């Protein structure tokens, strides 16, 4: 399937999760580490990137997953979307019995109940990102945190200039090329489509292609590829989701 460019009205949405969302306060987790780490490290969403993400002289990035998993053992990856403020750990509830568990929809990385939640996948997805389609979820927050800045991809100029997603795991670095930013239904994607069936993967790609949005010209994507979907909501449109679609181009280890 070859995606061609379509036009989209660029609008930056701000989400409001109920009348009280502007009063939400963020809980900071204090975690002490031993060994090579500092004797006491204050780790929170605001400080995590500076504490655990390191770039060497060649530009290679490493993530201190040992430190992250002391903070919360459900952390299994790290996502960075260059050009945006998205630079967060990725979680999945390890003891969930429901394959469509949404624990981190309303629990923070510190296991506190409430917003902003966390960037997470459901247990239906493997943690190695080798499923045909892996879906990551994150809130569209009034303060710009989490997946809010995905809405920048609704702007065609921004979409053309920013095209990568980086996912870091304990086993290596995954590089994705963004091929679409679309207005999609609020369907639970891994439930609606059986991604172990290549025909269902193809149907999903066709549904994405037939949606309204921005598409990267000349990008070939098929059911044989590894697809990453980033999903967030709109303000005042509970029945729709913004999806950022990307295809794996490099899985260096």
What structural class is derived from the secondary structure elements?
A: alpha+beta
Tally of individual helices: 5
**Inertia-based shape:** globular
Helix content: 10-25%
- The rounded distance between the terminal residues' Cα atoms is 28 Å
Largest sheet properties = 9 strands, mixed
Strand content: 25-35%
Radius of gyration: 18 Å
Compute the average pLDDT.
86
The tally of strands reads: 15
Order of helices and strands: EEEHEEHEEEEHEEHHEEEE
Q: Enumerate the spans where pLDDT stays under 50 for 5 or more consecutive residues.
A: 7-40
Enzyme class: hydrolase
Keywords: Hydrolase
EC number: 3.4.22.71
Protein name: Class B sortase
Explain what you see:
- This protein is of the alpha+beta class.
- Helix content is 13%, strand content 31%.
- The chain is built from five helices and 15 strands.
- It has helices at residues 48-52, 65-71, 156-161, 189-192, 198-209; strands spanning 2-3, 30-31, 41-42, 53-55, 61-63, 75-80, 87-91, 119-120, 133-137, 164-169, 172-185, 212-215, 219-220, 227-234, 237-250.
- Strands 6, 7, 8, 9, 10, 11, 12, 14 and 15 form a nine-stranded mixed sheet that branches.
- A hairpin with a 2-residue loop joins strand 10 (164-169) and strand 11.
- The chain is globular.
- The model is unreliable at 7-40 (pLDDT under 50).
- This is Class B sortase.
- Keywords: Hydrolase.
- Its EC number is 3.4.22.71.
